[in-house]
Structures are given as C-alpha cells and as structure tokens.
Amino acid sequence: MSPSLPATPALSRRGLLKFSLGASAFLATAGLGASLSGCSSSIPADGFAILRRADLLFLRALVPVMLNGAVAIEKMPNAVADTLHSLDNALNHLSPEMLKLTQQLFDVLGMAVTRGPLTGIWGSWENASADEIRHFLDRWENSSLSLLRMGHSSLLQLVMMAWYSREQSWVHCGYPGPPTV
User: Fold this and answer.
1) What is the model's pLDDT at position 65?
2) Which domain of life is it from (predicted)?
C-alpha cells in the first residue's frame, strides 16, 4: 500500500527555505537589474542629499499613511515634506553599506515589475489609495518571508525616526522636549 498525500499539502521547512532563497534571488536580481539598466538613478532629487526622484514618489504616498492619526489633516503636507527632509538627513549619515541596502529596498518598491507582485500595488504610487498602502504594509508585516518583514521594519523605523526626531511631533506624544542644561 502506498502512502497517500494529504489533501492540503503543508509547506515543509525545506520548501520554505527554497522559496525564501528564490524570493531573495529574485529581489537581488531585480535590484541589480534596475541599477544596471539605469532605472534607479543615483542622482539625488532637487533639494535632497540622498533621496532620489523615484524614492520621493514612493515615500510621498507612504508617509501620510504611516503618520495617519499623529498629524492633523491640514498639517499633513508640511509634515510629509519635513519628514522627507529629516529622512534624507538621516540617510546622509548612514554607513555606505546601510545606505546601499536602503536604496535597494527603495528600488524594488519603485520598479513596476517588482512593486506589483511584492506590494499588491500594480499602478503607480501616486494613484495608490491609503487602504491599498495599509494593506501592503500589513501584508509585509505579517509575511511568512523574513525578507518582507525586514523590509516592513526598515520602512517603519526610517519614517518614524524621521518624524519623531522633529520638534513638531513631540506635542502629539506628550514629549516636552530635551531638558535644558
């Protein structure tokens, strides 16, 4: 008598490792392809030291969703602009290797060929709704792939660090500011 397969095949540890390795190779190849093809320009956008034009398109859609509830609607445009400049300043002080990894993450999220399958946002970031962006963030946060969870964590930490390092954010969270010496 031959053993029968279960009705719903479970993903084995080996299968998960193979899938993760394949996904990692795909992301690395896509990032390298973008760099080599010129899709990811290394020229900073006007008024920025590190952030590129493509990065800004993605971040201008993401930041308002992440700051929702911490910023009044009427103050959101200024908060987004200030957060982007603060983020640019923080990226300008990263080690070259950490900056390279961050830019690869931004490249993968900016390229249409990788953005759709990885985020579920098939159109441009400018046309993505807040619900679509929230769904993308939830999907990455709860992914079975550690690479996506790390990407979510990186995005969250970068944006929150940039926002909460600004004095205008302190009132919302009750922080009186650094003590005067």
Assistant:
1) 96
2) Bacteria
